[in-house]
Design brief:
The protein has 116 residues and is an all-alpha fold. Helices cover 56% and strands 0% of the residues.
Amino acid sequence: AANLYGVLTIIAFILSLPFAIYYEGASFATQWALATSKASAAASPSGIPPFSLHLLASPLPPVSSPQVGSFWLTRQMALDGLYYYLYNEVAFIALDKARPHLRTLPQKENPRADTP
């Protein structure tokens, strides 16, 4: 089971990809363009800066959303995924190295098991 986490990650990706495409696919290009455009946030189709709808009820003035370039966003998403994967891979390796009795609750023997 040296590569258990890698295999589980690949299987989870393959199984969740159709759902992600179905539920998020239609709005992905629009949201990507809004997040990576260098134009002002007021230029969004609704006239409201993206990711700041909660500010409508706030007495504070609306703030523009952080907008970054597509290279930066792609790099950050890849690094986030890599760091998450490596963190979990190390956790699986550490659990594999631990003695088996550290992973389970000890079971006490019942001295009366033979009696009805």
